Automatic annotation (TrEMBL):
SUPFAM superfamilies per UniProt: Periplasmic binding protein-like II
Stored PANTHER family: ABC TRANSPORTER SUBSTRATE-BINDING PROTEIN, MEMBRANE-BOUND LYTIC MUREIN TRANSGLYCOSYLASE F
Membrane-spanning parts: none
Family assignment from sequence similarity: Belongs to the bacterial solute-binding protein 3 family.
Solute-binding protein family 3/N-terminal domain mapped to chain residues: 26-139
Keywords, in A-Z order: Signal
Signal peptide bounds: 1-17
Protein name: Transporter substrate-binding domain-containing protein
Entry superkingdom: Bacteria
Length: 247
């Protein structure tokens, strides 16, 4: 399998022979970055490698938010979405194949007097969460937490600045890009010491209505072999080292 993967990576397939692999991307730095200069990010480099491994041409469809990407995946308007957490409800419309481990999650507030050092303290505050986003099981399933659903991270930061809620949960890897986008971040917001790292994998989600020109067994074997060989994380680490401005 490794020799076969190396052959694809070195020589690929002729462009004229490559069917399309449609993927949805929303703006969620550093995982997915949509700007006037184009589209990039960790998810994109993983998707580019995926397309190369299975002999497809990557076609990106942009979306204003993650929830819309999931809907496009469900109805078959795209073949794949990167950056998913495996949940039973999603398995009704998608199959899942791994490519990297999850990151830490942390909390940000506008009020400097709030101090979150332990999970139990979260129950005292209203917390903004992104629509259709899973964080970690205890947090997602906790009936004692007061949550406010927002469409995207950028909107959430603006709302936090206006004190529309008390706390915002974000992946730790997004923090540098948030600081870059909001010049007054350090004077307006407080990053709390409590962090949580789920022991779980991040997946590609493939629509059960996908139009990929590859047999399911071959798709699974190819992606799982690349994950086990560390090919996806290697590409992500290369992106990280070449784009420190997002970290």
């Amino acid at each position: 399998m490794r020799r076969w993967l190396c052959f694809i990576l070195m020589f690929g397939l002729p462009v004229w022979a490559a069917p399309s692999m449609r993927a949805c991307i929303d703006h969620y730095p550093p995982f997915q970055i949509i700007s006037d200069d184009g589209i990039t990010g960790e998810s994109l480099v993983a998707l580019n490698l995926l397309a190369k491994l299975i002999g497809h041409e990557l076609v990106i469809k942009t979306s204003p938010n993650f929830a819309r990407c999931l809907r496009m995946l469900e109805v078959g308007q795209v073949d794949v979405v990167a950056g998913l957490i495996l949940k039973p409800k999603r398995q009704a419309y998608a199959s899942f194949l791994p490519y990297r481990e999850d990151s830490h999650y942390l909390f940000i507030s506008r009020d400097p007097d709030i101090d979150i050092e332990h999970y139990e303290q979260l129950a005292d505050y209203t917390i903004a969460v992104s629509r259709h986003t899973h964080y970690f099981d205890r947090f997602d399933q906790d009936p004692d937490l007061r949550k406010m659903v927002v469409n995207d991270l950028k909107t959430a930061i603006v709302m936090l600045a206006k004190r529309r809620f008390d706390l915002l949960i974000v992946p730790e890897m997004t923090l540098p890009s948030i600081r870059r986008d909001f010049a007054q971040f350090n004077s307006l917001f407080k990053v709390h010491p409590y962090r949580f790292k789920p022991q779980r994998i991040i997946y590609f989600g493939f629509s059960r209505k996908h139009q990929l020109a590859i047999e399911p067994d071959m798709l699974s074997t190819t992606v799982e072999a690349a994950y086990e060989d560390g090919l996806f994380i290697k590409k992500i680490e290369e992106f990280t080292s070449e784009h420190l401005e997002w970290y």
